[in-house]
Write a structure and sequence with these properties.
This is uridine/cytidine kinase. The chain is α/β, with parallel strands linked by helices. Helices cover about 30% and strands about 20% of the residues. It has one domain: Rossmann fold. It binds adenosine-5'-diphosphate and the ligand O=c1ccn([C@@H]2O[C@H](COP(=O)(O)O)[C@@H](O)[C@H]2O)c(=O)[nH]1. Adenosine-5'-diphosphate binds next to helix 1 and helix 6.
Length: about 240
């Protein structure tokens, strides 16, 4: 990370004074693809009675790292459509923008976060995806849309590589790793990508073998050691014996 300025924009939550700005408790939720990260976040929000609340009233908000994918040039866009672009490599992520955004959030600022659409591999408005994990998205075909993250007491950030960069990792007050076995994850990924992300079976399986699995082993799994809490089986784990 070079610390160069990025296009994240944020404003003060309380214009009169810094004293009353909310400094949220930041929780990172990592784990392999389809391990259940979004589901765990959604469950946390439900348990805390946050799921039905209006954006501005929420005390717990959830952000997905997928909002911070780099925009692709036309050559990489073409590769992506053929399943030949590695979305699981750290180089695919705009970590500078993510770092700036998290720092702004930690300073109690209201932030604008890009919204990502998997079916077009680009930033588009998919309102519910970012707030409620994978539940029914509302699409708007307008490019370069942003979603407003209002100051909150707790902010959850979920994603495959949220513990990869030390600078980002060190910002979390708590780190969770959702640990779900790889057969289960592949099965869920196939169903989800075909149903919700507009992919065909061959595309999903090729991408998985070529990029998703090796990158999980190289970049995601090694970050499990940084977790404060490991959650076996994700949302299936009620904590009861
Ligand atoms: N405990 C579970 N049991 C059954 N299906 C699950 C469970 N957790 C998640 N899923 C399903 O698996 C898919 C991926 O889950 P998701 O929470 O989006 O994973 P991630 O955010 O890690 O990619 C979704 O279709 C979701 O409904
Ligand atoms: O355009 C895209 C962007 C990402 N992906 C895949 O998404 C997963 C990460 O999302 P999870 O919800 O954690 O599964 C990652 O494995 C990428 O391969 C994509 O296919 N296309």
């Amino acid at each position: 990370m070079d610390g160069s300025p990025t296009h994240v924009s944020y404003e003060r939550s309380k214009s009169a004074s810094n004293i009353f700005e909310k400094k949220p408790f930041l929780i990172g939720v990592a784990g392999g693809t389809a391990s259940g990260k979004s589901t765990v976040c959604r469950r946390i929000m439900e348990k805390l009675g946050q799921d039905e609340m209006d954006d501005t009233q929420r005390q717990v908000v959830c952000i997905t790292q997928d909002s911070f994918y780099k925009e692709l040039n036309s050559e990489d866009g073409l590769k992506a459509r053929k399943g030949k672009y590695n979305f699981d490599h750290p180089d695919a992520m705009d970590f500078d923008l993510l770092l700036d955004t998290l720092q702004a959030i930690l300073h109690g600022k209201k932030c604008q976060v890009p919204v990502y659409d998997y079916s077009t591999n680009s930033r588009l408005l998919v309102y519910f995806r970012i707030l409620k994990g994978s539940c029914a998205p509302l699409y708007s075909r307008k490019k370069d849309e942003f979603i407003t993250i209002h100051p909150a007491d707790v902010v959850l950030l979920e994603g495959i590589l949220v513990f990869y960069c030390k600078e980002i990792r060190d910002l979390f007050h708590m780190k969770l790793f959702v640990d779900t076995d790889s057969d289960t994850r592949l099965m869920r990924r196939v169903l989800r990508d075909v149903k919700e992300r507009g992919r065909d079976l061959e595309h999903v399986l090729n991408q998985y073998l070529l990029f998703v699995k090796p990158s999980f082993e190289n970049f995601c799994l090694p970050t499990k050691k940084f977790a404060d809490v490991i959650i076996p089986r994700g949302a299936d784990n009620s904590g009861k014996l």
